[in-house]
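Appendix B. Raw example, untouched.
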Amino acid sequence: MSQDVQDIKTEALAAISRVDSLQSLDEQKISFLGKKGKLTVAQALMKTIPNEEKKAFGQLLNEARNAINSALEEKLSILQNEADAASVASIDLTLPAYPTPQATLHPLTIVKDEAIQILRRLGFSIADGPEIETEFHCFDALNTPLDHPARNEKDTFYFNSGKLLRTHTSSVQVRTMEKAVPPIRIIAPGSAYRRDEIDATHLSVFNQLEGLYVAEDVNLGDLKGTLEYFFQCLFGEDTEIRFRPHFFPFTEPSFEIDIMLHAKGQKPKWVEVAGCGMVDPAVFSAINKQRKDDLLNPEKVTGFAFGMGIDRLAMIKYGIRDIRLLIENDKRFLSQFA
């Protein structure tokens, strides 16, 4: 019986060595190791072997099976390598490769990342908050009266619950002041939502970047210096910047910021890029009341806030004339930023 196993092993190894195709290799595997294979049939005879010989016979069967499996694996590797070599034999490796498209970040992502890096260098940290907001965080805490146009259903997306899609990321400033201990220096990038008619300069969903600095003795010079540095880093050292008096419910005094735009083929013109101002004491008082402490007492702390549209910054930086190009996912347009 042991000699039969040795003969099967010898036969199998010889047959495998002559194989010249994957199909033939599979046939040999079935012939010797399949359910009705020769070695399998020999193994079934184990029950007829005297007990004192079963251990030696079992070892012989295992050696034969391992030898056959090793031969099968080695032959499989050889055949696969030969098949791979044959498949590329007709390929001219000296031909130039097909060009690989170069991926790039979206222009909004590029501008947002650059803006964040500039402000991080000034010590600002990133804060975040929910996009579905309460009227308190979006309007009441920001000294926005009930008859303000922004609170009208024609301008803001309201839910039946009374909550709304935030109209600006100023709500993140409120939530930060509710919990943080001064000094506070944060920026809040994120989406905002308004019922604007979509055209070349407006979208109903857009991207904002707002900032807040609250501490003792923060003054208008700090605000002006921060934003001049920011815009000159973003648009170049020679960027002309002006601050125009304006009105916002949550800052006093308030300003709009313009930069001089030099677009090719057009006369230079002032373009609004941001709003800013010193935090209104009424805002501190409203949040102090919510906090139930005196850490944001307007007699003790001052602060400044600013906000800008990332979409507008990207349009100015890259000379994009239609904001809708930023949401159409046209590869021809986006490939320019690779």
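End of appendix B.
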